[in-house]
Write a structure and sequence with these properties.
- Catalyzes the ferrous insertion into protoporphyrin IX.
- It is a single chain.
- The protein has 339 residues and is an alpha/beta fold.
- The protein contains 12 helices and 8 strands.
- The strands form 2 sheets. It has a 4-stranded parallel sheet with strand order 2-1-3-4, with helices on both faces. Strands 6-5-7-8 form a 4-stranded parallel sheet, with helices on both faces.
- Helix 6 packs antiparallel against helix 12.
- The chain binds ligand L6N33NVT and fe (ii) ion (2 copies).
- The site of one fe (ii) ion has 2 residues, from loops.
Length: 339
């Protein structure tokens, strides 16, 4: 029986919340030319002389808060998911977990699949929406590694999965308990941001102008426009949850540096919503499938504080899919469909 190898890849997290480990993680992550897409020398100076020295101690404190007895949720939920998939998939499947940055490395994951004599590999990055900085970077790293091998295996990549029915099923069930139990004035879909230039660079024939024409619809021309994908994810989820268009807003968080990032910016909205009488808000983080710094701390704690300070009354965050059985089912379906 031919064996099929599955490499599940997420972004990565520091090995520990210590300042040296956070600095090591930030250096590897931000020196990736797909993440900070500026010339090498400028990137090197920005990362090594400014971001790593000054941001690492601040970030380490926040990672300390995120860390629990199992470690970093991004990593341990990845381990849970892989364990469950190993139990649920037929015998011919071999599943490995990897992180784009830090550990477990993509190199070790691919090597483990090779040692198990798989005949084909499916790489499944855990990013529902495609971005060059995330999925694109995983694809490049995997290709760079296998290109050094004597035998280059047959490899397939899952570029995005926001439209999968089973993904929407999982998101809907996790969110439903909040929507049914509490009364909210407004719903906020907050996605990780990107520099605007990365949208332009991904655009086919200059189609993406970051306006309503591009991002309020989703089709062949803008299928890799991250902003359009985020709007589409929100439309699909809102429709499943019975949330009317006027009752939700899409926004983008985690801007870094002075260049323009995709809008609307989450921090501007937090101040605006209470002024518009929207004081009870439920937030969603559908660009993250596992709880991490960007969800639990940024949206769950920092945004909540800013929103309450601006006159808001209630702020809840829908947790990520983490190790939910419907999320495992979604991954299983994606794997079976693509192998
Ligand atoms: C130029 C910088 C960044 C781009 C572009 C970017 C894109 C991007 N990132 C994620 C997912 C995650 N990012 C996380 C943390 C994080 N991201 C950046 C910068 C960029 N991200 C930084 C500096 C950090 C570190 C946090 C800090 O020090 O404050 C995480 C969390 C990891 C964890 O361990 O919890 C995730 C996940 C996506 C999906 C994305 C593009 C769409
Ligand atoms: Fe990020
Ligand atoms: Fe677009």
């Amino acid at each position: 029986m031919k064996k099929k190898g599955i490499l599940i890849v997420n972004l990565g997290t520091p090995d520990s919340p210590s300042v040296p480990d956070v600095r090591k993680y930030l250096r590897e992550f931000l020196m990736d030319g797909r993440v900070i897409d500026i010339p090498f020398l400028s990137r090197w100076m920005l990362v090594n002389l400014i971001i790593a020295p000054f941001r690492a101690p601040k970030s380490a404190k926040v990672y300390e808060e995120l860390w629990d007895e199992r470690g970093s949720p991004l990593l341990y939920y990845g381990e849970d998911v892989v364990k469950a998939l190993k139990e649920e998939l037929p015998n011919e499947y071999e599943v490995e977990l990897a992180m784009r940055y830090q550990s477990p490395s993509i190199e070790n994951g691919l090597q483990a699949l090779k040692s198990k004599c798989v005949s084909e590999i499916l790489v499944l990055p855990l990013f529902p929406q495609y971005a060059s900085a995330t999925t694109g970077s995983v694809v490049q790293k995997v290709n760079d590694i296998v290109n050094t091998w004597q035998v280059i295996p047959s490899i397939k990549f899952v570029n995005q999965f926001l439209e999968e029915e089973s993904f929407m099923d999982a998101l809907t069930i996790v969110a439903k308990k909040y929507v049914e139990e509490e009364k909210y004035d407004h719903f906020l879909f907050s996605y990780h941001g990107l520099p605007e230039r990365q949208i332009h660079k991904a655009s086919v024939d200059g189609y993406c102008k970051l306006n309503d024409k591009c991002c309020s619809t989703f089709h062949k021309k803008n299928q890799y426009c991250y902003r359009a994908q985020c709007f589409e994810t929100s439309r699909l989820l809102a429709s499943r949850l019975g949330i009317e268009e006027e009752n939700y807003t899409v926004c983008f968080q985690s801007r870094l540096g002075k260049d323009p990032w995709i809008q609307p910016y989450a921090d501007d909205l937090l101040k605006e919503l209470p002024k518009q009488g929207k004081k009870r808000v439920l937030a969603f983080s559908p660009s993250f499938v596992a709880d991490c710094l960007e969800t639990t701390i940024e949206v769950g704690e920092e945004f909540k504080e800013e929103f309450i300070d601006a006159g808001g009354e209630k702020w809840d965050l829908v947790e990520s899919l983490n190790n939910h059985p419907l999320w495992i089912n979604c991954l299983k379906e994606i794997i079976l469909k693509n192998t």
